[in-house]
């Protein structure tokens, strides 16, 4: 470089040396200089794009690859890199355009079809994404990532036979991972093929006799199949007991164990397991619902109410909001907490304003809490919707014939 300052190749080699040493800023500087020294050279631009991509400067990387591709529009490799940078930059349509160019130049690159599937899935074009992933797998049958994406797409499209085929392929390719075999068992169970599900999980258990994931899946399969069958409930309980007592047991495992105990009629043990489930993080929201049910059956009304309130804080479930808030209100009534009951009935009415039964319950709570004026207003609202509603008429008569406290 000292002898020939205009030597592009010397700056290119220096940039590559900087890159190997991890000095990406210096590498980018030298690559830009090399590009200026020879504007017709593609290597400085392509390697500059590689460096900028490593720095997660995706827009600038895409610009470098784009300039490189304009110099050599026969390079499928550069077109693929351009697509990848554009995808990382959030420009899906531009990425798809570059991918179509790359595939037109070389239709035998698995990575290009894999990225095409990712982009199509991002645009919710699941059928087209599935075709792209299928092509990626056909070109590179040993690829795991494309098969995993196919599993996801097939599941979303309810193509469960193809989903199971890919799950088996993954298990064959990745024999060291027990969860692959467990996924096959769960797919059999989802389709109601209980014997095949148990067989797959039993095979996994032979491979890893102490793996909690397998016992959890077995417990889930037996529990779903049981439908009140005491013998199958016992199998589910036994499988889940092996892992529920472990200090590392997850919230969802303890929730499943609690469900098994509830179905088996052991409500006190279920309440203990489900209470533990609500304290393990990351917490399974369903644990709070199940715990509320167990606590209510044992007449632990305050605990049940608190669990339902906590569930509402974790899950924005508008479909069940009226039912859940009504349940909290009814628990409050059983605790003679009429003011709190009225507050929750108000929330239930706001969620389902056309439900006259909820208006009647709200009016009753307001009256029992001593708020006669609010009860009169609620009764009037309800009778406007249903003039012949007997519970509301009875409450109005009760107000008219009773003396204020």
What does this molecule look like?
The protein has 23 helices and no strands. By secondary structure, the protein is mainly α. It has a domain at 317-405: Tetratricopeptide repeat domain (Serine Threonine Protein Phosphatase 5, Tetratricopeptide repeat), CATH 1.25.40.10. Helix 5 (76-88) runs antiparallel to helix 6 (92-105) and helix 20 packs antiparallel against helix 21. The protein is elongated. The termini are far apart.
Provide key terms for this protein:
elongated; Serine Threonine Protein Phosphatase 5, Tetratricopeptide repeat; 76% helix; 405 residues; 23 helices; 0% strand; mainly alpha
Task: Give a topology summary.
Elements: H1 8-20, H2 24-37, H3 43-54, H4 58-71, H5 76-88, H6 92-105, H7 110-122, H8 126-139, H9 144-156, H10 160-173, H11 178-190, H12 194-207, H13 212-226, H14 230-244, H15 251-263, H16 267-277, H17 286-297, H18 301-314, H19 321-334, H20 338-351, H21 356-368, H22 372-385, H23 390-401
Helix pairs in contact: 1-2, 2-3, 3-4, 4-5, 5-6, 6-7, 7-8, 7-9, 8-9, 9-10, 10-11, 11-12, 11-13, 12-13, 13-14, 13-15, 14-15, 15-16, 15-17, 16-17, 17-18, 18-19, 19-20, 20-21, 21-22, 21-23, 22-23
């Amino acid at each position: 470089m000292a002898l020939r300052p205009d030597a592009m190749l010397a700056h290119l080699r220096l940039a590559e040396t900087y890159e190997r040493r991890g000095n990406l800023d210096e590498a980018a500087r030298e690559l830009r200089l090399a590009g200026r020294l020879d504007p017709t050279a593609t290597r400085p631009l392509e390697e500059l794009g590689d460096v900028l991509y490593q720095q997660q400067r995706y827009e600038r990387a895409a610009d470098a690859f784009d300039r490189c591709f304009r110099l050599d529009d026969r390079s499928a490799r550069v077109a693929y890199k351009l697509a990848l940078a554009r995808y990382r930059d959030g420009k899906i349509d531009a990425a798809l355009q570059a991918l179509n160019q790359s595939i037109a130049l070389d239709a035998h690159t698995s990575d290009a079809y894999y990225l095409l599937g990712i982009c199509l899935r991002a645009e919710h074009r699941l059928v087209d994404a599935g075709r792209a992933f299928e092509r990626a797998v056909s070109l590179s049958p040993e690829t795991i990532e494309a098969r995993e994406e196919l599993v996801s797409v097939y599941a979303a499209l309810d193509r469960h036979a193809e989903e199971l085929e890919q799950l088996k392929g993954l298990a064959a390719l990745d024999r060291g991972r027990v969860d692959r075999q467990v996924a096959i068992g769960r797919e059999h169970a989802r389709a109601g093929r209980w014997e095949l599900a148990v067989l797959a999980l039993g095979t996994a258990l032979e491979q890893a006799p102490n793996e909690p994931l397998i016992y959890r899946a077995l417990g889930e399969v037996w529990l779903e199949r049981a439908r009140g069958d005491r013998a199958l409930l016992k199998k589910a309980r036994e499988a889940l007991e092996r892992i529920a007592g472990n200090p590392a047991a997850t919230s969802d495992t303890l929730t499943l164990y609690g469900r098994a105990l509830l179905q088996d009629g052991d409500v006190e043990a279920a309440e203990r397991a489900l209470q533990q489930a609500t304290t393990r993080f990351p917490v399974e929201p369903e644990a709070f619902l199940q715990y509320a049910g167990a606590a209510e059956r044992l007449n632990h009304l305050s605990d049940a109410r608190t669990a339902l309130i906590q569930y509402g804080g974790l899950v924005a479930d508008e479909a069940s909001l009226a039912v859940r808030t009504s349940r909290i209100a009814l628990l409050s009534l059983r605790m003679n907490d009429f003011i709190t009951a009225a507050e929750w009935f108000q929330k239930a009415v706001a969620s389902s304003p056309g439900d006259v039964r909820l208006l009647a319950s709200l009016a009753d709570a307001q009256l029992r809490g001593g708020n006669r004026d609010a009860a009169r207003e609620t009764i009037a609202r309800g009778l406007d919707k249903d003039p012949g509603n007997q519970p509301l008429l009875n409450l109005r008569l009760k107000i008219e014939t009773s003396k204020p406290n």
